[in-house]
Amino acid sequence: MDHDAPFDSVDPVTRSRHYSWPPLPDAADRSPHAGLDALRAIIAGERHLSPGAYSLGVRLTAAEEGAVTMTAEPAEWALNNGGTVHGGIVSGWVDSALGYATATVVEQGTGYSTLDLTVRYIRALRPEKTPASIRAEVEHAGRSTCVVRVRVTDTDGRTCASASGVMMLFRP
């Protein structure tokens, strides 16, 4: 990565967050994000996650055909007034995981977008029980849609959220 690589720093004393995000790829480079090779390049640090995923603090840690694992260690900015991780942040992690899992089963050049997302919050995710693990597995990859299920667990291995979603595929 170059010296302009994205960064994220949180100062708990001043309660401030300073970060930069990766630039969007040029229009001609937006579809090559599919395929295991693209995801392995992200894990190796040769490519970046999407700006949205990066800003939510999620990291891609493993990818195989049909599944990805991501981790997230939220800072105080991601908490609700109850001191637990805001459900919208968890939903953002899940949405990112849907897309990256889909990328493992489609060929390079295939685009995709979330068509449906259902998140079930089972228990509060407490910051002291993070980094959270987000595991997404493809249940079905068809011609026009991909069905994915996701599980968010805390450091004790307890499920905090489960989700399912459908990705619409845009094949070349």
UniProtKB/TrEMBL annotation:
Residues 82-161 form the Thioesterase domain. Keywords: Hydrolase. One of its GO terms (molecular function) is hydrolase activity. Residues 1-27 are annotated as: Disordered. Its EC number is 3.1.2.-. SUPFAM superfamilies: Thioesterase/thiol ester dehydrase-isomerase (SSF54637). It comes from the Bacteria. InterPro entries: ACOT13 (IPR039298), HotDog_dom_sf (IPR029069), PAAI_dom (IPR003736), Thioestr_dom (IPR006683). Belongs to the thioesterase PaaI family. This is PaaI family thioesterase.
